[in-house]
Structure formats: structure tokens, C-alpha cells
Amino acid sequence: MNNERFPAVLTAIVLLSAALSGCGKGADQQPAAADSAVPATAVSGAQGAAPGAAFPGMEADLKRTLAEESDFYVFKAPGDFAKDTASLTWQDGSDLPEFADPNAQKGGTLNSWIPDFPRTFRTIGPEANDSFRNYLLDDVEPAFIKPHPGVPGRFYPELAQSWAVDRATKTVYFRLNPAAKWSDGVPLTTDDVVFSWYFYRSRALNEPWYNDFYHKTYSRITVYDAHLFSITLAELKPDIEDRAGNVTLYAKHFFGDFGPHWEDRHNWKIQPTLGPYTIRPEDIKKQVSVTLTRITDWWAKDNRFMRGRFNPDRVKLVVIRDPDKAFESFIRGDIDIFPVNSPHFWYDKLPDSDPLVAGGYIAKTKFFNSIPPPDYGLYLNEAMPGLDDLNVRLGIQYATNLDLVCRQYFRGDDVRQQTRSDGYGWHVNTSISARPFDPVKAREYFAKAGYATQGPDGILVNGAGRRLSFTITGANQREKDILSILKEEALKAGLEYTIEILDETTGWQKMQEKHHEIALAALSRSVEMYPRYWEQYAGENAYDVPYLKDGSPNPARKTKPNTNNLTSTAIYELDGLIHSYDHADSMEQIKTLASRIEQIIYDDADWVNGWKAPFYRVAYWRWVKWPAEFNAMKSLDYEQYWLMSVDPEAKKATLDAKAAGQTFPRQILVFDQYKDD
Amino acid sequence: MTISPQTRRQFQRFRSIKRGYGSFLILLVLAVVCLLAELLVSNRALLVRSGGRLYFPSYGAIHTGREFGLGYDYEVRYRDLQERFAGRRTGDWVLMPLVPYDPNENCYDGQDFKPRPPDVANRHYLGTDEINRDILARLVYGLRNSFIFAAGFVALTYLIGIAVGCAMGFFGGAFDLGAQRLIEIWSLLPFLLAVIIVRADLPPSVGFGIWVLLLIVVIFSWTGMTYYMRSATYREKARDYVAAAQVLGAGSGRVIFRHILPNILSILVTFLPFSVAAGITSLTSLDYLGFGLPPPTPSWGELLQQGTSNLDAPWIVASAFGALSIILILITFVGEAIREAFDPKKFTFYR
Question: Of A435, A492, A601, B40, which is the most exposed, with the fewest CB atoms less than 10 Å away?
Fold first, then answer.
């Protein structure tokens, strides 16, 4: 190179590299898409050392917390327990029916699949909220007591041997099962109970929702000895047992290194469990498969509500990213059970006439359950121009042909949700129902809103020349067909829908920031005694300062991001009702208020009722056995309660018979004993 | 514009290569079909005679049902109108295009949404897709979108590539070195991955139409032509006519675009068909993965994706795959023929 030019060139290269290295995003943490109705409210009163102070280590921090919050963590003498529970009635679930088949055969390997390798083996903390967590926590980790899936309102014991409720003091007393021990042999004691509450409430956990919930919901944990304790709620609720008892624990002896950034240290550690399945390190093949192994001397294996469940010795979960590919694996016999909920699979890919079904090798089962469905529907964002007009929203209600989607896309199997709260076991409001598709009526409402003339492209236009056009945002590729159908049908009413399908994380983020006009979304709902309204309909979840002093809308209000109020609903009267609802303490009060709340929401017309499937459908090879009633009434899917078992002899016999060309009787079963009418 | 005798000879040679020239003609016919798609494949009638008047609904404002005595305000269903008129015998008639379906319309009214095989009686020549839309209609309109995208892709990448490449070759020195390093780094980015990431992380307010997509794709593929333009410009710059032009007082811009560029046009022409193929392939790949044009825009990638998740309805994947293969083969033939025609050596012997 030319000697004169060398310094200039060198300078240029250096400056260039400096400029390029300056561009780059810092690692930003995106919250995982929540799949239950949980608001990400700000941390209020979360405990922890002052920001900036070094963390003194778990034991020291725990000790400090117990000292500082001695009105929350109360320690009494064992003798006090008898005194405090003198007049209470004890429950132990002995009057409740078993929901599994106690004679189910243990053994065998269940071959299943997961759509993605988990990003962590933690069950809490960043990125732990994924579908793999079902295998580590939701479906398998015991709580003190859990809601009985067959008897609404009653609970059955898991970690607790017995429990007693004292409504007057808002306290539930527990006797821990002395046989309970962690999978590494360490016995369960109230030390773990205390630690778990400390853990959930600690700012070092890096989980604002848990911090908030475990501060707001509980007012005291009282420990009497190694197995006797009580939990006191901050407010009396009809589901006091659920709030106090449906809590899972974390082992104190495993979290000695707990502190800030604990999640990095614990990402791939298998924590000890009180449940039936654990993961051995040799069974983890990153990005390929994870295998669960049954703990054969599990302490709860003869418990009345645990026997007959968790039957396979090994559960092999192979990563298959594409459901169609997973289906091909299932057809080959490499996977034992496959969910066939969509009409595409049930009718087209695995019809009744398929040789494997007709020959009895694969069984098809349709099970009607009774739970609140995810609230699918179109959420109209009232904060957006155009959608703030009630007549436009009513027009949209009648211009969206979800009836056709249910009838022809779901082949009549799915039906429309009639209210915001179908499936809780009681009719929340019988005078409202989903509005049918009616383009004529839709045009009337649009005309009332000023969209009276039809433009040259068939879309209505108002006086100012604005076209009646809105963007529907979806966060799931599978929804593109449904949205395309709705778009075609809306043209009949002179309404234009523009479809925007984003990927799951970006789409959910857009909806949480309330930047959508219309969102096609659904929040899954847990089995509870009564629905929740605050998260999705309270004015304070729509705007920072929704109202002026007199209750009228505040013109200077700004939309509030990161809440589940996707419709930006802020109705003063509704807020008052929701407030009363959240503080109601009897079911009658709750039912009355719920009915009025539903009516107001219906009249506001900002949710277009979507579809629900009052059943789930499963296909499985004939070596998978189920109880006589197939599954529990309040089961969300076939896997949740682990009632199935695998018969290795039947597997061998079936495969031999199939090779020899022998057939079995066809099995297409329908279980409608729990069907909601 | 005068065509030099050399260029005229090159075009003659191109015409003499039967395979390439034939493919070129077929592609031309397809492009015309796409241009006139509304007249060949559409649910709007070509001609309607009603009440003594003639209507031409193919282009322009819609006609509502009420205009023809049907009781609704949305666009009239011309196929139903045709049946009605046939029944009434008043001398009114409707002339429908060859394939009387729109790419977005859900056919088989009242029946479930699922793929149905080719049905010549109903004029669904290639069958229908997952939500009862005619596949041939989606292929034709999808081809139009592909051609538009490819045209935009080629125009933009070549514009940027030529400008940057020629500048690099002409000015040389530090600018050339710096730009070369930049281009090397930029071209190392895996194209599809980068496009997907940008597309997925775009703030949704930007919108997702075809032009935004085109912009993103061009940003990650403009570096392709720069190398060839650079070396060609270096070569031409050393020739006498450039010096002569500069002596006469021509500025750099004029020298590049008026004198050098016409002489290196053959390189561009040789690469053109392959760039078109690359554009079509990129759009198809993005649409297949779901990161391309928004639904329900007809596109071949989306049809391929439907095809692979509905292998029990083989007509979908067969149509999409067949169409894509044919188009890419035709383009490749044209490209080979051009390359042969523009080859400086008249006779080439492969030993």
C-alpha cells in the first residue's frame, strides 16, 4: 500500500469499526407471553435489601427478613396449635371420591413430544413460564391441597394430611403429612413453607407478579412446629381454601445460593421435587429430548388421590417443532398419544375410515369437560379513533361472521361463547348471548355512526371521507385462515379488515401496549369458583388517570401498557361494581354482581364473542389405558391429571398383530357424562 | 437510443437459441396474463347485459346487488346473476372470464372449509385450498405479486449496486477500500435470517405491505452486483475514451453513466434473469415461513406452506411446486441463453 495514504486509511478503518461496534442493542429482557390472566403490576412493598446494597447470602437474608417481618412470619409453640384450632372441624378428603383408577398398571414408557426444548428447568423466574413447566410444576408438583376435579368447591389433600378453615380469622390450619419428603430424601418441614413464602416475596426472585401476589394475598404465616402451621389471608374470599392451600413449595436446602441473579445459576439445575417425576442428568439431550423418570418409592404413592395416577415409569419427551411432523411420528407408533382437537386432524388427517383407526390400532376419543374456556374473540380497542363510537362497535359485532367460522371451519363442533364467563358451572347472565352475523343490521349501526355512503370499492365511507377500515392483529400463524374468512364476510357489511399476523412475542407485546385496533386473542383461565373481571375491565388497567373527580372521562388520560385490559374499557359505574365484586365474601353477592357486570360489558360491545370447544379430542394407540370415565370432569386436557397408563405387553401384542394383519374392534369413544348444557 | 451492431448481433444469437428464446416468449405470455389477470381469472364478469344496458365490471367501481334487483348492498355475485338470467330468458346475459373465481373468495357456499380436489365441472381446474379458495386463481395473482416483487427487487438492487460499484471502481483509493470492507462485512450476514429478524422486530406501526418487505429484502441483498460493477469499471476506466471524455471536461457522473455504463451493460443483462429468480425465491421462502406478505394476499410461498401441512390433499402442493419449478426452469433457460449470446467467444468448446 502507498505509504502516504496509510495513516488516512488506518484512521478510516479504526473509525469505521468504532462506529459499527457502537451499534448494537443491550440485552433487553422481554417478558414471556403470559398464558393466564395475570397483570404485571408494579412491585409494591417487595422485600429485599435497599437497592445498591450487597446481598448478604440466603441464610443471612432470610434471618433478617424473619426479624424485620415478625408480624408476617409468626412462630408459636406446638401447644398453641390445639388451643387455636379447638373449635374447628378438620377435613382430610376421606369423604371425596377418587378420580383415578386405583388399579391402573404402573410401568412402561410413555412416548410423547414437545414443540420446543425448554429454555430453562427452573419453574419460576424469567422464561420459566412456558408449556414445558407443566411437566415440572403445574401438573405434577403437589400443593397442600388442590381443587377436586370432580366435586366443585371441595379440595383433596396432597402435602397436607388434614386441614381446617377458620373464616372468622381468615385462616386455614394445616397438618403436613409427616411422610412427605423431597426427591433427594430430605423430609418436608415447615422450614420449607417459611422459605417458600420468603422466596416468593423476595425482590431477588426477579418476578414482580409473584412478589405482588404473595404480598397482597397473605397477611400472616404462623408456624407451630415442624409439621403444624397456618396461613392467614389478607381478605376473606369464598375460595379461601384455594388461596391458602393451592400453593407449591420450594426446598430450602436446595436454594442456599439464592440471591440476585439466582436464575442464571439455576437455569439447568434439576430442583428436588415432592412430586412423582424427576429428571436424571443423563436423560437430558439438549435440543433433542428430555425424559422424566418415576420415583418408585414416592412417599405419596398410596395416597387416595395420587394412586392410580402418574403411572408410566418413564416419560420420553422428544422435541418435534412441527405438529404435522409430530403427527407422522404418531402414525408410525413412535408417539403414543396425540391431541386431535382441530377439525383438520379429527376429520381429514385421521378420519374414522383411516386403516389404523378402522383396524382398531388407534383409538379416537371425544371427552366433554366442564371448565371455563380461553376467552377467544375480537377485542376492540376503545382508545383507538373510530372504535370509541358505540355504534361502530355494535356494527362490528354484527359484521363479524364467527358463526360461519364455528359452523364450517370448526365443522359445527366448536360453538360461540355466550358470555364473558361461560363454563364456571353456573349461568352468569341468561339474558345476553353472542350477537349473530347480520350485515343489514351492521350497516344500520354504521350509518348511525356516520358511515352511510358506500365507496367505489364496497367499503363504507363517512362524511369526512374516512373509510370504515380496521386492522386485526393476531399473534398466531394458525389464525390466518379464520381471519381471512372474517375479512371476506365483513365485506358484505361494507367493513374492511386488514389482517396483521405477528409472531407470538411481538404480537402479544403490541396488544399489551394497546397499539392494536382490534386484537384476536385469548387468555386461558384457571378452574376457579368465579370469574375475574378486574384485570380486563377495570378503568385503572386502561388508563393512568381514567376519570375526573366527578366520574367523567379525563380528557388528558394516557393508555396504560402491560395490563390485560385489551379493550381499554373505562366505565365509572363498572369500576364501582368490580370493586364491590372483588371484596364480596359470599357466592350470592358474587353472582348478583357478576350478572350486572356482564350486562354492562355486553352493552359496551367491545368484545366480539369468539368460539369455545366444550370438549377435547385425543387419539392414542390401543396400548394406552384410561380409567372407566376416561378423565376428570374439570380436566383441561388429557394430560393434566396423569390418569393414563401404558401397557408394554399390549404394545408388543398390538405391533405383532399389526405386522400379521390382524385387526381389533374399532374404538371411537364419546364421553359426555360431564357435558354442560 | 441507437443499438450498436454488436448488440444487434447478440440479440440475434439469443433468438437463435431455441430453448432460451422459447422460454422467454412463454414468460412474456405469462407476464401479459398477469397484467390482464382481471380479465382471465376473476369473479367479476367481463360483460353484463341487463335491462338493455351493457356493463363492464372488470375494472372500476363495484356494482351492488341492488343495481341488478338482488336484495343486498354488497358487490353482486355475478355467477349467481348468470344463473338467474339463464332461468329468466329475458335476453339478459353475463359473460364470465375463463376461471370465474377471485383468489380471496371462499367457494362452496354452505360447505365445510377443507381442501377439495380439481373439479372441472365447477371450473376449479386445480382444486381449492384449506378455506375453499380456488388454487388456479391464487397461482395467477400470486405470480403477479411475484413478478412485481422481483421487478422491484431487481430495479432497486441494481440501482444501488451499480451506483456503489461504479463509484468504487471509478474513484478507487480509500473510498474503494473502505466500501469494500463494509460490503464484505454486510454480505456475511445470512440473508434469510436477517430479513426474518428485522421483519419480526419491526415496530408494528411501520406496516407490512409489499413495499416494506421489499425494502428489507433489498437492504440485505444490494451488495450482490457491486463486485462485478467495480471490476468492470476499473477495466473501462483504464481505456482511452474515458480519458478523452475527462479531457473534454466531462464530470465523474457523466463519465460513469453516459460513457462507462453502456459498455458494461452486458454483465447486467447476463445476471438479470438470475436476479429475477432470486427475487422470486426470496419472496416465496419468506411467505412459506410466514414472514412475507400479510394474509390473505395470494402468494406461492403461502400455497406451498398450505400444501406441506395438507399432504393428504396433494393437489395443493403439486400445483404450487409445479408452478414454481416451471417458472424457475424457464427463467434459468432464458438466463443460460443470454449468457451464451453475450459470450465474447463465439465458439466455446468444452473439453
Answer: B40
**Alpha carbon of A492 to those of A403, B57, B70, B153, B277: distances in Å?**
15, 18, 13, 36, 39
Judgement on whether residues B89 and B169 belong to the same structural domain of the protein: no
Q: List the single residue in A with minimal CA-CA distance to B64.
A: A458
CB contact under 8 A, A13 and B178: yes
Same domain, B82 and B159: no
**Interface contacts (A, B; CB < 8 Å):** 99
C-alpha cell at A294: 418415576
Residue ranges of B 71-90 with Cβ closer than 8 A to chain A: 72-75
Task: Convert the pLDDT of each residue in B143-167 to its tens digit.
Answer: 999 999 999 999 999 999 999 999 9
Per the structure, the complete domain to which residue B236 belongs is given by 5-36+137-346
Contacts of A598 (CB under 8 A, 6+ apart): A419, A420, A421, A428, A429, A432
Q: How far is it, in rounded angstroms, from Cα A110 to Cα A292?
A: 10
Compute the distance between CA of residue B72 and CA of residue B249 in angstroms, rounded to an integer: 71
Within-domain flag for B124:
no
> B143 and B261 share a domain?
yes
pLDDT for position A676: 75
What does DSSP say about strands A624-625 and A615-621: parallel, antiparallel, or unpaired?
A: unpaired
Average model confidence (pLDDT) across chain B = 90
SS3 B277: helix
CB nearest to A12's CB, from B111, B174, B296: B174
Statement to judge: residues B74 and B212 lie in one domain = no
Domain assignment present for residue B131? The answer is no
Q: In whole angstroms, what is the distance from residue B128 CA to residue B135 CA? A: 5
Three cell numbers written together for B291: 414472514
Beta bridge mates, A248: A143
Q: What is the ipTM of this complex?
A: 0.90
CA A625 vs CA A102, A574, A622: distances in Å? 13, 49, 7
Q: Which of A564, A469, A557 is nearest to A511 (CA)?
A: A564
Q: Which residues, listed in sequence order, are joined to residue A363 by a DSSP beta bridge?
A: A620
Same domain, yes or no, for B324 and B260? Answer: yes
Q: Which CATH number characterizes residue B226's domain?
A: 1.10.3720.10
- Report in angstroms the alpha-carbon separations of A587 from A36, A153, A243, B192: 23, 11, 16, 56
State pLDDT tens for residues A291-348.
999 999 999 999 999 999 999 999 999 999 888 899 999 999 999 999 999 898 999 8
Asked if residue B129 is part of any domain, the answer here is: no
pLDDT below 50 — which residues of chain A?
1-2, 22-49
Q: Residue A205: what residue type?
A: L
Strands of the sheet with A377-380, listed across from one edge? A496-501, A469-474, A518-521, A377-380, A607-609
Do both B23 and B81 map to the same domain? no
**pTM to 2 decimal places:** 0.82
Chain B, window 130-159: residues with a beta carbon less than 8 angstroms from a chain A beta carbon: 130-131
Q: Say yes or no: B209 contacts chain A, CB-CB below 8 A.
A: no
In a domain, B180, yes or no: yes
DSSP-assigned letters across all residues of A313-332 = SEEEEEE---HHHHHHHHHH
Please indicate, yes or no, whether residues B20 and B74 belong to a single structural domain of this protein. no
Give the contacts of B37 (CB within 8 A, at least 6 positions apart): B140, B141, B144
Residue (of A585, A599, A634) closest to A239 by Cα position: A585
Q: Classify the C-alpha dihedral A71-A73-A78-A81 as positive or negative.
A: positive
Is there a single domain that holds both residue B62 and residue B168?
no
What pLDDT digit, counting tens, does each position of A183-197 carry? 999 999 999 999 999
Name the residue with higher pLDDT: B303 or B257. Answer: B303
What b/e sequence results for A348-381 when a residue is b if at least 16 CB atoms lie within 10 Å of its CB, and e otherwise?
Answer: bbbeeebebbebbbbbbbbbbbbbbbbbbbbbbb
Which residue carries 335491462 as its cell?
B51
CB atoms within 10 A of CB B350: 3
**How many domains are contained in chain B?**
2
Residue pair A608/A589 in contact (Cβ under 8 Å)? The answer is no
